[in-house]
Design goal:
The strands form three sheets. A five-stranded parallel sheet has the order 3-2-1-4-5, with helices on one face. The longest helix has 18 residues. It is built from ten helices and eleven strands. The protein is α/β, with parallel strands linked by helices and about 260 residues long. The termini are far apart.
Length: about 260
C-alpha cells in the first residue's frame, strides 16, 4: 500500500517535504504553513492540539507524524485505534535533528529519493553544529518569552533552551521541566529575584506574536536586560529549519540581526 502521510506538527511537515515526500503528504494542521506553495493543496485536519479526528480518518493515512510536546496524549491514543503507523518524535536539542532525519529515513527510506534528499540536510546541519560551539561565545543569562498574560518561558531541558545554549546563552530560570507537561514551560510572575540578573530578554514571534509594543512591558520585568524580538520559527522549529536557525542564532549573538517586522 502506498504511503499516505498526515503530519500534525509544522516542523515535521516541512521536513517531510524536504525529504521529497510531498506526493505522499495527504494531511496537515492549519499551523503547517511552510513551504507555502507545497502545502497549499494539502488537506487541513485542525490544529496541533485540537485535531479533527473524523476528518483525519477520512484521509485514510498509513502514517501520522506526532510530537510529544506539540500533540495531546489522548489524540495519539485515539489515532492508534485506526492508523497503522503513528510516528512519535521528541527532539530536545539541535543535534537531535540528526536523529530525527534518521528516524524518518528509517520509516520512509524505501521511497525513491528520500535518502538522497536526507544526505545534504544532514551534512548542512553537521556543518552548522560545528560552527556553533558554546566556547566561541560569551555567556549570558537569557529569558526567552513564549507567551504573555501570563508570561511564560522555557525550561532548560527544552529544544529552545538547548538551542540557545549553543551560543552559551543560559535560559532562566535554572529549572528542568521533565519529559512532558506544563513544567517544561514555566510561568513568570514578575517578582522573582533572578529576574534582576537577566542580561537578555528574547520575545518570540510564536506561539505568542510579540510586537514592538510589548518591549516596554518586558523591560519592566528585567530593567538591566537588553530586550529583543526574535524569529520564533528559526529558534524553535526543528527539522530543516534548524540549519538556518543556528546561523540566525549566531547573528543574534553577534548583534547583527534586526528584529522581525510587526
Amino acid at each position: 500500500m502506498a504511503e499516505r502521510i498526515v503530519s500534525l506538527v509544522p516542523s515535521l511537515t516541512e521536513l517531510v517535504i524536504a525529504l521529497g515526500l510531498r506526493e505522499q503528504l495527504v494531511g496537515r494542521t492549519g499551523f503547517c504553513i511552510h513551504p507555502a506553495e507545497a502545502v497549499r493543496a494539502v488537506s487541513k485536519v485542525g490544529g496541533t492540539k485540537d485535531v479533527n479526528l473524523a476528518r483525519l480518518r477520512r484521509l485514510m493515512p498509513t502514517h501520522v507524524l506526532v510530537n510529544v510536546d506539540e500533540n495531546r496524549l489522548d489524540t495519539v491514543a485515539a489515532l492508534r485505534e485506526f492508523v497503522p503507523n503513528v510516528v512519535v518524535t521528541h527532539p530536545c536539542s539541535p543535534e537531535d535533528n540528526l536523529l530525527l532525519i534518521d528516524q524518518l529515513c528509517d520509516t520512509f527510506g524505501h521511497v525513491a529519493g528520500v535518502r538522497g534528499h536526507a544526505a545534504p540536510l544532514r551534512d548542512e546541519l553537521v556543518g552548522e553544529l560545528a560552527a556553533t560551539q558554546p566556547s566561541s561565545f560569551s555567556p549570558a543569562r537569557v529569558l526567552y518569552m513564549i507567551w504573555r498574560e501570563p508570561w511564560m518561558t522555557v525550561a532548560r531541558d527544552t529544544y529552545i533552551s538547548r538551542m540557545l545554549a549553543r551560543v552559551n546563552w543560559h535560559s532562566q530560570p535554572e529549572v528542568l521541566g521533565g519529559e512532558t507537561g506544563a513544567a517544561r514551560y514555566p510561568k513568570v510572575q514578575g517578582a522573582e529575584a533572578w529576574l534582576a540578573g537577566v542580561e537578555r530578554v528574547l520575545l518570540s514571534s510564536e506561539p505568542y506574536r510579540f510586537e514592538t509594543r510589548h518591549v516596554a512591558e518586558a523591560q519592566a520585568l528585567c530593567p538591566r536586560a537588553q530586550v529583543q524580538r526574535v524569529d520564533g520559527e528559526l529558534l524553535s522549529w526543528y527539522g530543516p529549519r534548524a540549519t538556518a536557525g543556528l546561523r540566525y542564532l549566531r547573528s543574534l549573538a553577534a548583534g547583527t540581526r534586526a528584529a522581525p517586522a510587526d
